[in-house]
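Below is a filled-in request sheet from our internal design queue. Each sheet records the structural input a requester submitted and the sequence that came back. We keep these sheets so that new team members can see what a complete request looks like end to end.

REQUESTER: design group, bay 2
PRIORITY: normal
MODE: inverse folding
CHAIN LENGTH: 116
BACKBONE (tokenized):
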């Protein structure tokens, strides 16, 4: 049921035969994206997680990896991500870029840069 409520499933750590692997199977059956967390690939209770990686599940180190994979978000912008000169007008430059429709702000502090 949990796998059907979201677009993707992230397995953090799963021993062989665990409930997390059952959920991962359901996610794949429901055409959901499946990822494994890099932090869950070590240790005795990670056999299932390592098996998912061997079968092709992408390894992620954070939610920004998933967002990039989905092609919807970029990293939280810094002034280096927004074209133009540096200096004290960085915030104003970001705001202008947003008002021009080239930078879109999502809830939770995520931004998408839509280019020139």
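RETURNED SEQUENCE:
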């Amino acid at each position: 049921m949990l796998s059907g409520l979201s677009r993707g499933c992230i397995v953090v750590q799963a021993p062989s035969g665990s409930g997390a692997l059952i959920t991962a199977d359901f996610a794949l059956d429901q055409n959901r994206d499946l990822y494994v967390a890099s932090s869950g690939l070590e240790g005795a209770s990670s056999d299932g997680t390592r098996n998912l990686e061997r079968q092709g599940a992408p390894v992620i180190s954070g939610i920004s990896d998933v967002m990039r994979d989905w092609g919807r978000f970029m990293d939280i912008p810094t002034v280096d991500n927004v074209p133009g000169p540096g200096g004290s007008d960085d915030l104003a430059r970001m705001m202008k870029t947003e008002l021009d429709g080239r930078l879109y702000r999502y809830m939770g502090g995520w931004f998408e840069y839509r280019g020139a």
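SHEET NOTES:
- The first helix runs from residue 19 to 29.
- Residues 61 and 104 are 24 Å apart (CA to CA).
FILED BY: M.R.
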